[in-house]
Structure formats: C-alpha cells, structure tokens
Specification:
Elements: H1 16-22, H2 27-48, E1 52-56, H3 73-76, E2 80-81, E3 84-89, H4 95-107, H5 131-142, H6 156-168, H7 174-189, H8 200-203, H9 214-233
Parallel strand pairs: 1-3
Antiparallel strand pairs: 2-3
C-alpha cells in the first residue's frame, strides 16, 4: 500500500464535494472509508484465499440509528469478495470496552501491540496530540493501562500537553462527549481506577461547559469569521 487511505481520493470543493459538505457530511467518514476497507479486503482475501476478513467496528450496537458511517454491519456483513466473507467485528462492544479488553489481555500475557489510531501522521506512528490520539490515551489510562506500551509517548511533558489540549483547545460535539468522554470519566470515578489523584482534573471536568473555555470560544469565533470571508470571496 503506497498511500494513506485518506489521500486515495481527493474530492474537489465543487460537484459532489460541495454537495456532501452542504449536507453537513464528511466524504471520508460518511462515504469513503468503508469502500477503502472493503477494496483492501478484496485484495488480501484473494491473495491469501481467506474465508473471512474481520473489519473492526467503528460504532457499537447500542448506538444503532444514532450515527451515519460508511463502515457498518448493514453493509460489511453482506459483502462477498469471491470466496471471502467480510465480518463487521465486535459491534457488541463500544470503544472503551475494546480498549479495556485489550489492556486486560496484555496483562494476562498478550504481547503489547503498537496501535495506530492517528489521523494526522503517516507511516503508522501516533502524533499523540490530535483529538483521536488524546481520546485513545485517556481510554487506556482509564483502563489502568500504560499508553507508552501501546505506542504513545506518555512522559510528564506529554501529560501536560494532553491536559491543555482537552481543557483549552479541543471543541467537543455533544455526541463525542456522550459516547466517549463521559464514559471515560465514569470509569475513572469507579473503584477499579487506581490513579484518581493524578487524573482528578479529568474527573472534575463539567462536560456541559467544557467548550465554554475562553480559548475555545476564540477558536470557534475565528473559524466562523474565516468561513464568512471564504463565502464573500467566492
């Protein structure tokens, strides 16, 4: 594979690209990445004569009907690639449950995998600073795991930067808060979490007001101004 999935197809700001954007959708998430995964599965399945290929679920069953995603069991599980059947895997588990399962298995002796979740870097590494990296790090921490063992930098400097990004930079959607960050906070409040004092700052976040930070509001205002200027220039 010579290119990243997200650079396989560049959608112009006109035509279908404009149509998708005007509908409040994103081409990669809502259309492309399901096709990208399935086409890669076709090549791998044919080469190795596989009976099944498992594609990890993006969402979980309890959120059914609340999301739009190009990778879904209603699509993947009905695809046949010659002799290969596609299985949309672990749809019964949410993201935090998957991370906890992985952390526990590694404690039991499974070799620690260097997971790649980053949507910024190329080549298989994690930037450790984008929202998805930070979210994954906090999920590992909440599961009493060590992010460094899974391919993330997690020294004191990294901890401070991630804290700053969550409190003063990332603008969270209601859906992201409900499905990702509030569950992390609840797990950190449970008796099983053994680092409450160190991560009290995260536990104490008021998720209803998390976007009310001055720097976040300034960032939102700047984006709106930039968008308005683009419309005028067009």
């Amino acid at each position: 594979i010579k290119s990243e999935f997200r650079s396989m197809l560049r959608v112009s700001e006109n035509g279908i690209g404009k149509f998708i954007k005007d509908k409040g959708l994103e081409y990669w998430h809502d259309f492309q990445h399901g096709m990208a995964l399935l086409t890669q599965a076709a090549i791998i399945g044919y080469k190795f004569r596989l009976e099944k290929i498992y594609i990890a679920s993006s969402f979980c069953e309890k959120l059914k009907g609340k999301y739009l995603c190009a990778s879904d069991p209603t699509i993947d599980n009905y695809v046949r690639l010659s002799l290969t059947k596609v299985v949309h895997d672990s749809y019964d588990m949410d993201r935090l449950s998957k991370v906890g399962f992985l952390v526990n298995k590694c404690r039991e002796g499974l070799s620690y995998p260097q997971i790649h979740v980053c949507w910024v870097t190329k080549g298989g590494s994690n930037c450790g600073r984008c929202e998805k990296c930070c979210r994954t790090i906090m999920e590992i921490v909440a599961s009493n795991g060590d992010p460094e063992k899974f391919g993330f930098k997690w020294q004191d400097k990294d901890k401070k930067e991630v804290k700053w990004l969550i409190l003063h930079d990332f603008i969270f959607t209601e859906s992201r808060i409900e499905t990702a960050y509030e569950p992390i906070a609840r797990l950190m409040q449970s008796e099983s979490f053994d680092k409450k004092q160190e991560y009290q700052w995260f536990i104490n976040i008021d998720w209803e007001k998390v976007n009310d930070d001055f720097l976040k509001k300034s960032k939102t205002s700047f984006r709106k101004i930039k968008k308005s200027i683009k419309k005028v220039i067009r």
